[in-house]
Amino acid sequence: MRAVVYSETGPSSVLRLVERDLPEPGPGEVRVRVVRAGVNPTDWKFRAGATPAYDEVSPGQDGAGVVDAVGEGVEGLEVGQRVWLVLAQSGRAYGSAGEHTVQLAERVVPLPDNASFDLGASLGVPAVTAHRALTASDGGPTRLGPGALDGRVVLVHGGAGAVGNAAIQLARWSGATVVTTISGSEKAALATAAGAHHTVDYTAGGAEEAILAIAPDGVDIAVEVAPAPNNALDLAVVRNRGTIAIYANNGGEEFTIPIRPTFSKNLRYQFLLLYTLGRDLVDAAAADINAAVAAGALRVGDEAGVPLHHFPLADAAAAHDAVEGGAVGKVLLEVGDADPA
């Protein structure tokens, strides 16, 4: 089988397309023939970062394809079943950037019949992260679905990004009023296509006033991608007992929290990292994500504010560069055919 691998960290040029033996699933594992693999910022950051934990790594946390072998003791998955992957390369050498991948059964999720492989490969990192951000509030729901966020106002920073877009779609499906901050009319159009009720251009000034005009009592949840530059704004617009759910460090590695203004509002800072969430939260997210997909509430493509950028598997380096360069939308590797001859 073909796979993209690297044996040393560095720029995208360390990625190589190689031939490897077809892996066999062990107990509790399944083998998936990959059709699409998603590329996320975490993939290029791991590739460019510290020394790999394995002699050879095949990147990719997200993917979608078809089960083609099942190991001993696996229940609920069978050969021929369409699936999507979550945490495919977490704690493992080989992720989704190959024609086949062997995964723990718990990381392989049935793909609803109405979902394309493009959508399946776009779910893992963005949608699970968004789900946790929306279910981390004080006294809020632990699961999403119609009515779960009725009466709540959700502020999504960076609504044109992959996690931001998923948060908009999941929050709206669950009944929230969704406000998102964006930079410019093009990203406002993407966030609106995703389902945001209101967009606020933070580059134009007056973001605090604009958000409070929409939500005079403050927002219930701020889904935060850039806590360093945004913390003062969040403190101003999040309501008493609200939650600031932080999933990234865009704009700075550190930020300072003013104590009295923060504790006077009984605020909760919920930091979250997909790789250490735990199986219970990942499983809950996957179930709700599948329900949203089946309902047509979680989508990709231009009409959903998620432009798709396809690259052949052999061009994985270019795909990594596109994500590192800030491509708007979802970058996908075309790994295999949906229906091979």
Automatic annotation (TrEMBL):
The keyword Mitochondrion does not apply. PANTHER family: QUINONE OXIDOREDUCTASE. GO terms for molecular function: oxidoreductase activity. InterPro entries: ADH-like_C (IPR013149), ADH-like_N (IPR013154), ER (IPR020843), GroES-like_sf (IPR011032), NAD(P)-bd_dom_sf (IPR036291), Zinc-ADH_QOR/CCCR (IPR051603). Residues 10-333 form the Enoyl reductase (ER) domain. This is NADPH:quinone reductase. SUPFAM superfamilies: GroES-like (SSF50129), NAD(P)-binding Rossmann-fold domains (SSF51735). Keywords: NADP. Pfam families: ADH_N (PF08240), ADH_zinc_N (PF00107).
